[in-house]
Amino acid sequence: MTSPGGLAEAIAAESASGTAPLPGAIEGPAAVAAAHAEAVDREGRFPAEAIAALRQAGRLGMLVPAAMGGPGGTLADAVRDCFAVARGCGSAGMVLAMHHSQMACLVAHAGDAAWPREYLARAVRDGLLLASVTSEEGVGGNLRRSLCAPEPAAADDPDQRAHLVKRATNISYGAHASALLLSARRAPDAAEADQVLWLLGPDDYRLERTGGWETMGMRGTRSEAFVVRARAGAEQALSTGFGSIATETMTPVTHILWAGLWIGIAADALDRARAAVKGKLRKSGGSAAGAPGTPRLAAATERLLAAEALLASALRRYGEPGSAQSREMRPAEVNMLKTAVSEATLDAVGQCLIAAGLAGYRVDGAHALSRHLRDLWSAPLMVPNDAIRAASATLMLGPRPQLGRFL
Ligand SMILES: Cc1cc2nc3c(=O)[nH]c(=O)nc-3n(C[C@H](O)[C@H](O)[C@H](O)COP(=O)(O)OP(=O)(O)OC[C@H]3O[C@@H](n4cnc5c(N)ncnc54)[C@H](O)[C@@H]3O)c2cc1C
Predict the structure, then answer these.
(1) Which residue ranges have their beta carbon within 6 Å of ligand 1?
(2) Which of 106, 177, 218, 243 lies in disulfide reach of 131, CB 3.0 to 4.6 Å?
(3) Are 330 and 399 a contacting pair, CB within 8 Å?
(4) What is the pLDDT of residues 265-283, one digit of tens each?
(5) 51 and 75 in a common domain
(6) Window from 23-27, 298-302, 303-307 with minimum mean pLDDT
(7) What is a single molecular function from GO for this protein (predicted)?
């Protein structure tokens, strides 16, 4: 769909004016995201303009295959979009990544079921935004535990749909979504880890806001707390258990898309730091070799190229959502992509800040890096890296890591 626009390529292609070209049809929405990024961050509001532009450009349904009524974009296409949008606005990039990760779950696990397939066709046509409801009070941030369970309707209830009530601690852009993918126990007597995913359409649920989103970064994601009250027919629960969906699709796709958007945020920080260093150099008339800040720029670029190499390798190993290949990727590798890229990008932006000096430390001006740093601090703590590493520690004692497969 689009031409590749990786970090290394984007840096190499940077024009003399200091701005980098963005790939194909994503260029317009990415520019809209960038134009509104400061206001979205300052006001802590949903990036409505960017999402409308993505909808208009037909990018929200990009992962839906042609056989299901979509354009048939690849996961790499979605990563490039997240990169390009996040380069302008981290919050808009995160909204896009979360939406694509949920769409990927539907695409990979809808099977022949009519309801999710009809939803996907409609989502492409109308540009519907899909949100994730895995978080819940009382499960300690563990995706693989649910307390919420469907209550069957009473025998004399004319509406024979089940009731679901979930007290979610965070639903990104919950108030702005058209549909939800919600994890719940299979039945009232099921174990907490025996979960299924429910697809709730616009008319199936109500949200009651129970907590706000006054955070230091990712302010535009509006990841507020809500009680979700839903009524849904049995056909709205995906037939594949959530354990398999989480392992095969939700977690790997989310980590891959997050990596793309985090690198996008850091790529913009690097552009800004480079511009700041070049500006100082012009004023002082010195040579690039001895310019203060350049070793930090080099260190930041090293981190980002390494992060991008990890992402490229993960994409190659994973393939497409729902493919046989995707089921073979090891959970430890999926986890390590997340922990490594979240920390590498944050560290890279720290290096950029030191390179830019006060121009980057200011919260205003073309070289300001505050938003980038604040947005990226969400990376190691959204699904905490310590918890992921604790899980990986157990996995490390299983099959040995696949080292030596360089290409
Ligand atoms: C920007 C953003 C968007 C989000 N969007 C959504 C969304 O759309 N839908 C959704 O459902 N959720 C969403 N979440 C919530 C997310 O899925 C997690 O539930 C949340 O990040 C957990 O936060 P917590 O700090 O309360 O985690 P906790 O699990 O309570 O962890 C708190 C701290 O305890 C430590 N810790 C926890 N477990 C372990 C362990 N096993 N070993 C060692 N240390 C541990 C870690 O240091 C961690 O930082 C979002 C979060 C963010 C930041």
Answers:
(1) 98, 131-135, 140-141, 168, 170-172, 218, 221, 223, 378, 381-384, 386-387, 390
(2) 177
(3) yes
(4) 999 999 999 999 999 988 8
(5) yes
(6) 23-27
(7) acyl-CoA dehydrogenase activity
